[in-house]
Amino acid sequence: MEFSITTLALLVLTPLLVWRIYSRIKKQMQRQRSIGSRHYTGVLVFGAMILVPLTQLFDTPYNLAALLVGAGGGIGYAVWGLKLTRFEETPQGYFFTPPARLGLVMSMILVARLLYIGIEVYANQGKGIPTQQLTDSPLTMLCVGITAGYFGYYSAALLRWRRRVRKAIDQV
């Protein structure tokens, strides 16, 4: 079995890429300031991650079901994650500490699937095998649904928490 220099580079750089993504996501799973615009962005981006593929999946029921089941599972995990989240209202502002392990798992599910697709595209390069669309695989749609459902619902819940705290402060 012969390896080209490109294949060897891919084998060496993939673990490095995974480590960098993991360490970057891990830094985001610590105590952080609650910023409303970030939460709105989260709702919009992760909502779009569900709605855009949804519009293409009406003719493939298995992929549609995988996306919807994944989104439902992600929302379920978000509800659980919110119970584990520590919320703080201080004079410096609003802060929250998300459950680090759960957030890392939800992020890395999608990262792992996208890396697999990238390696698959690289392995099939030059073989005349057509590249599948992202929405062609039920497993990919499940991963997208889980990740988008989790972070979209989590962002929406953070917005609701901020509104509730502000309303309580205004009433006092």
Automatic annotation (TrEMBL):
Signal peptide: none annotated. Keywords: Membrane, Transmembrane, Transmembrane helix. The keyword Ribosomal protein does not apply. Pfam families: DUF1453 (PF07301). The chain crosses the membrane at residues 6-22, 42-58, 64-82, 102-119, 139-159. InterPro entries: DUF1453. This is DUF1453 domain-containing protein.
